[in-house]
Amino acid sequence: MTDTTIAPTAAPPSTPAPAVPEEPGTPSTPVPVDNPKLPAPGVTEEKRRPILPAWLKDRTEFAATARHASGRLGYASLYHGVRLPWYGVQLAAMSPRGACRFAAETNRWLWDREAAPLRGHAVRTEDVDEYLHLARLRGNRVRLRGLVVMTAAVFGTGFALWLYVMAPAYLWAFAAGAVLTMGYFGQQPDAPVIGPAVMRTDLQKLTGTIVLRALDSIGNAKISAAVKKGGDMNGMRFTSEITRDGPGYRADLDLPYGVVPEDVMEQRQALASGLRRKLGCVWPSGDPTEHEGRLILWVGDKPMNETSKPPWPLLKDGQVDLFKPVVFGNDQRMRDIMVTLMFASVVIGSIPRMGKTFLLRLLMLIAALDPRAALYAFDFKGTGDLGPLEPVCHRYRSGEDDEDLEYVVHAMRELKEELRRRAKVIRNLPKSRCPESKVTPALASDKSLGLHPIVVGFDECQVPFEHEKYGAELESIATDLAKRGPALGIVGMFATQRPDAKSLPPGISANAVLRFCLKVMGHTANDMVLGTGAYKAGIRATMFTRSDRGICWMSGEGDDPVIAASAFVDGPGAEVVVARARQLREDYGNVTGHALGEGPSATIGMDVLGDVLKVMKATEKALWCERIAARLAELRPDTYGEWKGENVTVALKPWSVRTGQVWGQTDEGEGKNRRGIERADVAAAIARREADRLAA
Ligand SMILES: Nc1ncnc2c1ncn2[C@@H]1O[C@H](COP(=O)(O)OP(=O)(O)OP(=O)(O)O)[C@@H](O)[C@H]1O
């Protein structure tokens, strides 16, 4: 522990024990609260310290360390490689000085000059014995050293002559080496020729004193009082040594009684000032495995947005099972953060340009890598950010014009029908196959049931929900998706840059399981995305700066919200992932809809049967299809404007309404047989449909 270790202190014996009345209403006979015979719980908690340091066990961390080391080595080699000739010139210029120094030093050594002051002292103090002893020592040394110098001179000269005769080229190499060595000795100590390739500025080490100074500066009266008290810190103490943890330091401490980590988290900026670090380096949090007063203070070497993230593991390789957790980003310590998309509805919110679309696209990429999943991607910004996903999308649209919204309405009506169908399929499955009345991995993989995962992404979802004509219908289907979708294998993801009640209807925000909040400006938007009470509990996306792009509070995975930096996958990166996902889908046989150039059916979700019945008069037993098409176009020009007789035939076929030859009169009064349908068949189909719906 550091010298600032704070040990818990026992209450002085003189402290009167708090007491409670023996019985309610009889305050005169107090009974001590602390019973000396009360047994201790007999539980000793043990925590084993890891045998190997974390970076040796974690492949990603190990790879990052190795990458860093080899990167530095490569850089230093290049840096010095380029400067080698200049080093040679400088060292050659310094070699005469080096040679003089060498000769002077050798001379000094040969004659044992280093002991001269001792001999001088013996002479001055007239210490004859000491002098004689030193003189003898010098005589021996000079003899031995003279021999060494003579031998070196004879052998050196002999070796040089031998080289001169046998291999003159080597003589020059040795001579150059000697000149450089002399140059090396001739350098000025304060200006070496070969300087460092990397200038390092050492960050201050995190110490207990610094942590306490910072905590004292956040303006919390209880903490300040505890820090000032010194010995008795009102329960405040470090619970373990300050350690290195990933690219930063970690300090674990108990806060004073009654203070919770949220009190510190709220004052993160003041804490950062007290620590003399950038805000992005300072990450206080609670410890879910301990009590409510435990604080983990993690202080990074660099702000989170400047720390290089490991590449997304699925970028180049791998497949996804949407029922299992998948890496989508990293925490402050650059450890992997997982997300499980199945059984969740997702909301993503932030102010513009913070990385919402990138995050939504990342989640869609994860879904794309599960070959079973059907993807519906709708980008209402219209910039084509979700475009790389087109080759794997069942439905895809980018834009906010009326025809784009019409496409989306049709696709969403398909999903509404799909919700209904899935509910029926699941209800009819035996409990042994579907014990929890929800889609299981085995059911999702059974192609005959059609219960594969469906992932629907809305970017800028405020646009469709505020649309004059389709807004209400889209909101109602999307809310249904958010509520019932997860159990039925449908994941709805809604991203918005304006998280308010209009953009993110309460039915969706209240039912979301996974919530991602990048930077927002106020507590209302914060709680809209992260859930009511999040801001108060210290889960504040307002604390992010504008350069914290891609960094968000994430809740819904695990017990507590976490801060995550989502993996950065740009457009070209997304295309690479999609190419792999497309191949997986081709192998699995799941390339459908938009990926094959097909759009949603305009009749899905429309009450074609009802409309047909409406346009057939009660007195008309049967009617030509072309007449029905013309009357439908009059009834709803938007929907049926382009319809011909064949469209009626095709639209009624799934309802088992067959066409046949019907006798009628043309506008000119001529009698003719043409394709038509009987009114009774339509009425019967409607009755069947209603019975089915009631049963569902
Ligand atoms: N995970 C990330 N890591 C680092 N930078 C990111 C990350 N995600 C996004 N960015 C950067 O943030 C910029 C904005 O991203 P994006 O387009 O997703 O923002 P947005 O919130 O959707 O904006 P808008 O609301 O205007 O649509 C991107 O150009 C990208 O450079």
From TrEMBL:
PROSITE patterns assigned to the protein according to its UniProt record, in alphabetical order: FTSK
InterPro entries: FtsK_dom, P-loop_NTPase
Binding-site positions, ATP: S350, I351, P352, R353, M354, G355, K356, T357
Biased composition (Pro residues): 10-21
Transmembrane residue ranges: 144-163
SUPFAM superfamilies: P-loop containing nucleoside triphosphate hydrolases (SSF52540)
Region listing for Disordered, in residue ranges: 1-46
Domain FtsK: 323-527
Keywords: ATP-binding, Membrane, Nucleotide-binding, Transmembrane, Transmembrane helix
Entry protein name: FtsK/SpoIIIE domain-containing protein
Native source species: Streptomyces gottesmaniae
